[in-house]
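Forwarding the complex inputs:
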Amino acid sequence: MWYLSHRGSAKGRWLARFTRLAAAAILYALVGVALVACSASDGGEGADATPPPGTTTPAPAPDAPTGATTLAEVRARGFVRVGVNDQLPGFGYIRPDGSFGGFDVDFGHALAAAIFADRDAVQFVSLSASSRFEALRAREIDVLIRNTTWTLTRDTALGLTFAVPTFYDGQGVMVRAEDGIQTLADLDGAVVCALSGTTTQLNQEDTFGGTSVRYQPLTFDRNETLQEAFVAGRCDAWTADRSQLAARREAYPANAGGGDSLVILPDTLSKEPLAPATRGDDRQWADLVNWVVLGMIAAEELGVHSGNVSELATVPPSQEVSRLLGSTAEGSAFDAGLGLAPDFMRHVIAQVGNYGEVYERNITPLGIPRAGSPNALWTEGGLMYAPPYR
Amino acid sequence: MTAIPVRRPPLAAAVATVRAWTRDARVRRAVLEALTLGLVAAFVLYVATRAREASSLNFDFMTERAGFGIGDQFLTQTDGGSTRWQAYVAGIMNTLRITVFGILLSVGMGLSIGVARLSSNWLAARLAFLFVETIRNTPLLVFVVFCYTAVVLRLPRIQESADVFGIAYFSNRAIALPWLRPETGAGTFALALVVGAVAAWGAWKALRRHEVTTGQPAYPWRAALALFAAVALVAFVATGTPLRLDIPEAGRFSYSGGMRLSPEFVGLLLALSLFNAAFVAEIARGAIESVPRGEREAAAALGMSSWQQLSLIVLPQALRAMLPPLATQCQNLAKMSSVAVVIAFPDLMTVGGTIINNSGEAIPIFILMMLTYFALNLGIAFLLVGPHWRFNWSRGRRA
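Prediction (whole assembly, two chains):
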């Protein structure tokens, strides 16, 4: 008990102060060690491209159980969590009664129907463009179906896996008809408004960067503020995916001139294949999402729709239809190997419909024609093509 | 300790020692301190490791091409071909611009409103009270969006811009004002201005000393200003009139020439300075009320005018009480400027968000943004409550 003799003395006070100082020094040293450890392993990874065995790769969340567990997780939970847009009419929006509706939302319903035979076993999570990938990585949602463009770096650097595109879009430019802007070249000096957190800004720069057209970018975080600024005349042009522009034009306030006062220019600034995205560490789940979408395309091609699916399932007209709907007509049902019931596509078609029905229900009312566009079936000159279901 | 040692079995002795320790305040404190320290260290280590696992914490991606343009820039020239660092610096410059002008405006307005609240004029006091209460009970985010959409965007369209005698224009595309553009010789002229200012300061000091020592009025302010004006005028002519009046012209999509303020900047500046002025007003009121009433009564007894009482006796003392909370409020303003993101003003938060979206590197950017705001706030604290500055100021005032 060496310190007792110093209690109250000058030496004791000095000791107390020294103890505090030492404590503070140890704390800073620990923080320093942590940071140095971080930067040290940093340099190691930068030096050789492949991380040494034993270190974790940065992409997946560290506590995420690796392997095919999303489906098990979803089954245990009893419903699918789907990240969607909540303010894009036609694709993902909230109906007056509070439920979610739209093209992307219907694919969420299709997933629920495939897994649980119940289109309502799904929870929709509204996400902003800038928070969507973090939400997927943090396992807040199982799949992201939110008018998301499939790009190379999103596939690699963001660690995502994309399913087949549900909608082939392209970036367009919308202007006021009265301004007399005909082509992109007329936009020299104009203020071009866009939403942040999207590929639109990058495409815009790619398109105009090399030309003599000098535009002034203005990037908003929210659609409402952007529309307010556009209506007030702050922007000359509004750039976004053409599908979004069509939806926005449809919903343009009547007191500002209505949709007829706006023109979408014929020029296209980019390719925007919109596709559902899943985490890159779960191939089984990615396959499932992919083949539900492909199944809906295949169903349309085979003439299977919500009106005739129960009839065709009992008396399949062909082997292909029989395999697609998992009919047991020939003794044993075709097992797709996705970890689902053999007749999962039957529930999807009966409860949600085939690709064409979903398009008709959501996109056609926006005034985006399907015929002649990349979104038509391949048999009609489009890009919608499902590999064989066997 | 007793002089005669008591023999105890070793176990009992150990128990007794432990019991003595648990009752010793020093040991208890040391254990608690060690526990706290351990918990803090474990937490920091945990956070650092998790951050390290989720991201490489490598800033190489910042040297890549930005790929996006920034509309409103202050002293920077960034375009899509610049690196992400350059885009980020453009964001920092915008944050600095909004912070500096916001602090100047909000402190100026806040001081006047705070004084007005204490005024004996019923109307002034009531209006100041209404202003402060309205603002203090409104969320900043709502107020910023309101100032932008309901005030600034309601300015006329560019085709119908309001012009002031053909030299300044107001529209929701920009507010364009005439401006002085520096031309060749501007550097020499600026140098001459600095020399003139130093000379004027020296003259002020000398005349002031003369005034204090002899008691004869020497008009130090008038003389100093006249000296400065004379130096400036002579230098302006001598360097060949290096400043050109730049008057804006209205074009189809925007204005050319002059100084153009974007609606986003004006809206944010308006919102931030009004919002913070309400808080500065409260700080000023509290500080003024903290000066004992007797001080003012004594000043009145000496025959000072109402303005002299305020400016020579009350405000100098109030200002010293005001400085620390005022500095905090100015730091708040700097941090609040990050709401720029909702009205499309490209501050460092907006630019940082775009970089995150393009690169997917959320954690490094957030660390960078926190460090930037941290440095900015330290700078404000240093400027406003730096001990050196306050010391000199109070001594100078007493002289």
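Chain B has a mean pLDDT of 89.
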